[in-house]
Amino acid sequence: MLKVNNIEVSYLGVIRVLHGISLEVGDGQIVALIGANGGGKTTTLKSISGLLKTEQGQITSGDIYLDDKRLDRYGPEDIARMGVSQVMEGRRTLEHLSVEENLQVGAYRRKDRAGIKRDMEMVFDYFPRIREYRKRVSGYLSGGEQQMMVIGRALMADPRLMLLDEPSLGLAPLAVAEIYEIIQRINTERGVSMLVVEQNVKAALGIADYGYVMENGRIVLDGPADKLRDNEDVKEFYMGISSSGARKNYREVKHYRRRKRWLS
């Protein structure tokens, strides 16, 4: 469904961030893109959604396809019409609007009023907590409730592909578990393909079919999600768990020396 082929990305024509990234998302798949902060994960999503062009970024090499359409030739508004929705890092709520108004913004390009009304109820069924707050100004919601709302807002666009950027960021563990359970349900019940960017490796690989590990603008490891979860490097460097099963402390994880075979 989605194919990213060996793309290189620069900002302002001089700051190279991505160095030949390739990845795929199959129809109906959940794919996780994991790695440390600053590795280029968000830039990858913006390259797909077209938002890169709004930040003086440019794909200098490679291409991106959604089925037979070359996405990197289109702007973000056209890519959204093709069925690609991005949930931005940090939630990006329209804080002065109510929950219901935020959701309606997600359906701005749609003309089918009956379908919009139906999908509004669908979002409230997935996120019953925000149903009771539908008239509340969204800036007063908790972080978890805002995250539910922005995922619902992306759903209101009736997407084929959702790009989720750090959906667990700043949330309590119980809220993370709830949101990831619903993300998995949306994928299963509605067949929406998903590319999930995360630092919370355990959460992302817990629902994904396939995963990629990114370091410094390069894919250094990829494979089925269950195999990545069992990979000793992934467990040590991103979950803080040693080969003995003991959890490492912050200092040990922070100062790890990457095994050379990662970049071989």
Describe this structure in words.
The strands form 2 sheets. The protein has a 6-stranded mixed beta sheet with strand order 6-7-8-3-9-10, sandwiched between helices. A 4-stranded antiparallel beta sheet has the order 2-1-4-5, with helices on one face. Helix content is 37%, strand content 25%. It has a domain at 2-92 and 160-230: 3-Layer(aba) Sandwich (Rossmann fold), CATH 3.40.50.300. The protein is built from 11 helices and 10 strands. It is globular, with a radius of gyration of 19 Å. The protein has 264 residues and is α/β, with parallel strands linked by helices. It has helices spanning 41-49, 76-81, 99-106, 113-126, 128-131, 143-155, 173-190, 201-207, 225-230, 232-238, 250-254; strands at residues 2-11, 15-25, 30-34, 57-66, 69-70, 84-87, 161-165, 193-198, 210-215, 218-224. The two termini are 28 Å apart. Strand 9 and strand 10 (218-224) form a beta hairpin.
Concise summary:
The chain is α/β, with parallel strands linked by helices.
Give the SSE map:
Layout: E1 2-11, E2 15-25, E3 30-34, H1 41-49, E4 57-66, E5 69-70, H2 76-81, E6 84-87, H3 99-106, H4 113-126, H5 128-131, H6 143-155, E7 161-165, H7 173-190, E8 193-198, H8 201-207, E9 210-215, E10 218-224, H9 225-230, H10 232-238, H11 250-254
Helix pairs in contact: 3-6
